[in-house]
Amino acid sequence: MLHVYVEPVPKGRWGPIDGYTVEFEDGTKVTPEIYRSEMLAVGEIKLRGYVPLLAKVRITDKAVTEHWQAAGQPLPQD
User: Fold this and answer.
1) Domain ranges for the chain
2) Chain mean pLDDT for the chain
């Protein structure tokens, strides 16, 4: 299955998160919608047959695997 990325918007560190977009690795959007929560975005992506990856950091880079975790996995406790 193809991985897709659930990214917070606006992209960048400043300001609150307004929603979440879903993108392929090359940055193209899977859907044009902005989802109000990660849970809504994950549900839509699973219905479409993709594997969602959630951001673990606010400023994301799709090339850095440490920035992402598969949906459903708990965050590691430090």
Assistant:
1) 3-70
2) 88
